[in-house]
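Q: I'm writing a short explainer about Putative FAD-dependent oxidoreductase LodB for a general audience and would like to include a description of its predicted shape. Could you first generate the structure from this sequence?
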Amino acid sequence: MLPTKETYDCVVIGAGPAGCTAAALVARAGFSVLLVERESLPREHVGESLMPETWRTFERLGVLDKLRASRFPKKVGVQFVNHTGKESKPFFFRQHDDRDCAETWHVERATFDKMLYDHAEGEGVECLDGVRVLEVAMVGDRTTGVKLQAKGGATAVIGSSVVVDASGQSAMLAGRLGLKRVNPDLKKSAIWRHYRGAHRDESGGGVKTIILHTDQQKSWFWYIPQSDDIVSVGVVGDNDYLLKGRGKPAQIFEEEIAKCDGVVSRLVGAEPLDDLAVAKEFSYSTDRPSGDGWVLVGDAWGFIDPVYSSGVYFAMLSADMASDCIIDALRAKDPSAERLGAWAEEFSMGTKWVRKLVTAFYSGEFRVGKFAMDHPEHVPALTDLLIGRMFSPAVPRMFEDLDPWLERAIAESDRQSDTADDTMDGGGSVPAIA
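A: Of course. Here's the predicted structure. Afterward I'll give you a sentence or two in plain language.
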């Protein structure tokens, strides 16, 4: 099926959370919007745990009642388990902020994304799934529309004042324009699957996202309870460590589980589902967020890492903020790069704190519980960041202490490692063993 019109004010590529959010908000402002998704919906996707601050965009979209009425379990906190199996005290969001907006949900993405897609259609968006964008039409550096192909092979060229690239990690426009930059320090891979009948801890009135290190700290697991007695379990590690020269992903996945007692104990008696999936090299940024007639949102703009469940939140917030710029540009009849990308500087200033927290996590020496004990005054700011309140003025102040604290922890770890090496080599007070 191809579009009903030849020209739209706005064409959105990709019907994930970012694309559906941008499409719905621009259409609500009175503009004609076409939303195109290459896959048939519903379709499976990773990213089931939401940051609570996503609530703000849910409220603006008008989907909170649908979420409250859904089967999605309520997410009430986050917990960390270190490589020795020691569990941190849970970060219960309600203890930090007793409002409803301090909690969120764990979602099945197929159902969640379809809900947002149907909501966009209800806002007046023309929604097409199973339709490919073959190319983005450009005159010089300005986009003028898209060329589409339906399932049967029929094609059409559609004109548009603004093209929104919400194509996810395929990053259609960023790839074409050479804007995508993989983060060399976060070249990670993930393997995941779902289990039925795994352990569920519902203390605190709901479920938690649990982050667990393996015993050698070369990888970590997410553990995300969902509805219908299903739990999402995934492992993340460096590309070279996780996937190169180790056999099939299913074998690697089981090997990594065996290195994490916290996951092993939670999966006792559980049934693995036949849905193993793999992703790799998923942390990247783009050189710029917009150009004349086009703007990037969601994962097409960039993706940091899954460790703090920021992906869907960043996708929806970027689309929420970008939609105001798109509406402004269409009203002014000036879809310039400056107007369409005016949201990005503020957004980037906030996301950099989550990026710094991700970098701390991968340092190998960031102990959430230990930092909280050493600096209890920063627990509210740390919880703010885990909730998604990255614009809180307390967050940058936290890093004034976290950065030197982490440097000291790394230095101490290096000293202990050197001492151990000296001992093995015959240095120190212990004689070498021949």
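A: For your explainer, you could say: The CA atoms of residues 198 and 267 lie 5 Å apart.
Q: Perfect, that's easy to follow.
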